[in-house]
Amino acid sequence: MNSEVEAIRPQSRLGMWFDHHVYSLVASLGRMLRKPWATALTVGVMAVALALPLGLWVALQNVERFAGNVQQSRQVSLFLKTAVASERARALADELQARADVAAVELRTPEQGLDELRRRGLGDSVAALEGNPLPSLLIVTPKADGDGDAEAALVQALQQLPEADVVQHDAGWRDRLAQWLRFGMRLAWVLAALLGFGALLVVGNTVRLDIQSRRDEIGVLQLLGASDGFIRRPFLYLGACYGVIAGALALAVLTVADLALRAPLAELARSYGSGFALHGFDLPQAIATVLGAGVLGWLGAGFVTGHYLRQTRPTET
Question: Labelling 59: which of 26, 108, 269, 295 has CA 20 to 30 A away?
C-alpha cells in the first residue's frame, strides 16, 4: 500500500504543477479581459514597436529579392555602329561566343528592333522614320562563375572593338544598390533592438503595476512559504500573453498594408514589363514572429517580477 502511494505521489506533483500552469495562463487572460482599455493600450504600443522593424525588414527582403533578379541579369549591351552590316554583326557574335569569359551572345538586328517598337505601340513613330536608323545590338552574357574584375575586363574588351559604338553595363549601380541593402539591413536590426527594448519596458511597466495591485496577496504567499517560481509564474504568463497578442496584431497590420500596396505595385511593375510582386511573411516566419514577441513579453515580466521578489523576500531570523 505504501509503495502504491509513493508511486502515485510524483504523478500528483506533476499534475499539480501542470494545473498551476494552466491556472496561471487562464488567470492572466482573465486579468487582461477585466482591463480592456489598459490591455489595448499596452498591446497597441507593443504592436507598433514590433511592426516598424518588421515592416522595414519585409520591405528590404522584397527589394533584395528584386535586386537579386536584377543582378542575375548581368548582360552587357553592345550597340554596334550603324555602318556595320548584318553579316559582320553575325560574325562578331560568333567571335564573342568563342571567348572563354562569355556564356551566350544574342544578336538583335535593326529589323527586330523596329518590330519591337511596333509591338510597344510606337507604330506611328516608326512609320514616320526614313529608313531604319536602329543599329545592330549584341547582348553578351558573361560566365556565371566570373567575378567583378572579369566582367570589367570583358566590358573593356568590348569597348575596344572597332565596330562598337556604345557599351552599356550596369555593374556600378548594382554595387551601390547592394551597399544600400546592407545598410538597410543593419538599420533594421538596430531599430529592432531599440524598439524591442522599448516593448520590453512597456510589458515590464504593465506587469509592475499589476504586481503593485497584488502586493498583499504576494506577501501572504511569501509568508506561507510559496517559492519565487510559484509567485512569478502568473506574471510571466501575463507578459507572454501581451507579447503574443501584440505580435499577432503587428502581423495583421503588416498584412493589411501588404494587401493595400500589392495591387498598385503589381500594376506599376507590369507597366515596366516586370512580373514583380510583394511577398509578405510565410507561415514559419509568422509563427517565429509571434513566438518571439511572446518571449519578449515573458522576459520583460520576468525581469520586473524577479526584481520585486528580491526586494520583498522575507529575511530569515
Answer: 295
